[in-house]
């Protein structure tokens, strides 16, 4: 909610016309961003002793000073407007003051200001005041008090209900109450189409789908040694959809646990199906290759990344490492380096580049094993800690 100075004066027609004109001028200045000049004009009205336009001028001054960034002066002006008890400008000033306090996290002061607006008796500001009081009660953990204020906020009109409905529905979803969130969202949509409310309604459906898929996955492997009543194909489908929706919701840990439980399913057929679904889109090795049956060193890292949604990060690490390795090896080649010591140094630096990454040791160990097999040795050919430490053992 943003307070403005656009409402016309409510004094008797023709009374103090010079002050009415000044208020109109100040309003126009404020609406075009000339806050300092607007404040000066509003102060003319206040200094002139106008009683009819005092509340309007004080309210306008609060807005103008706030626009200038003079928070303390803005609050003083808002208090002055509130003290007039004007049926229109006093509650509006209270709302402006409450928002000012909320910006600085001054909850107690904001709550008092919202209550002043609510107690004014002007129904135009009741919904906004209830919304502010609901936020404050929620933030301090008083859900019961908050619920009453949310009901008041949702009892407003088309100007205030959609914003309150979005705010309340988001909080309900975060608390795991999609049913109540849907009620609130549909109430908000009854006042008119709103993309934000539609988006949250979609999130409600996602939460319900997560609950349904989770129930199927749990029923397929209930424990206690008894087989679940869910067909293997349906069980694996539920695990995949559950994991992918959790990832979409922004819960990579939950997605990882869902895949892990599916891979450990007591039914081997389900576990195998889940494993295939996790590897959907993976590059499969050439079946005619000599090492077609071996598990590549990168496989566990790729599966973990797919399960937790961190594949882009893993790909970024690999490309970054590849680019640096290429640069270290290509530079002496491009410069025509022929010194053995310099070439050896470049190779050492290139080989060590993957070491800081979590998958770096697995890459080194894979090379260690390949070298051992190629040499026909039963023992490691390379020393412990290679390539960071130690030299290759002499033949």
Descriptive overview:
By secondary structure, the protein is mostly helical. 67% of the residues lie in helices and 0% in strands. The chain contains 18 helices and no strands.
Rg over CA atoms, rounded to whole Å, is 34 Å
- The topology string of helices and strands comes to HHHHHHHHHHHHHHHHHH
Percent of residues in helices? 55-70%
Count of beta strands: 0
- Distance between the ends: 80 Å
Question: Which strand-content bin applies to the residues?
Answer: under 5%
* Structural class estimated from helices and strands: mainly alpha
Largest sheet: none
Q: State the low-pLDDT regions, or none.
A: 1-14
What brief labels describe this structure?
single chain; 395 residues; elongated; disordered N terminus
A few lines on this structure:
Helix content is 67%, strand content 0%.
Give me the secondary-structure topology.
Elements: H1 17-31, H2 35-47, H3 54-68, H4 71-83, H5 89-103, H6 107-119, H7 126-139, H8 143-153, H9 161-174, H10 178-189, H11 195-220, H12 232-249, H13 252-263, H14 268-278, H15 299-308, H16 311-334, H17 340-352, H18 360-375
Helix pairs in contact: 1-2, 1-3, 2-3, 3-4, 3-5, 4-5, 5-6, 6-7, 7-8, 9-10, 9-11, 10-11, 11-12, 12-13, 12-14, 15-16, 16-17
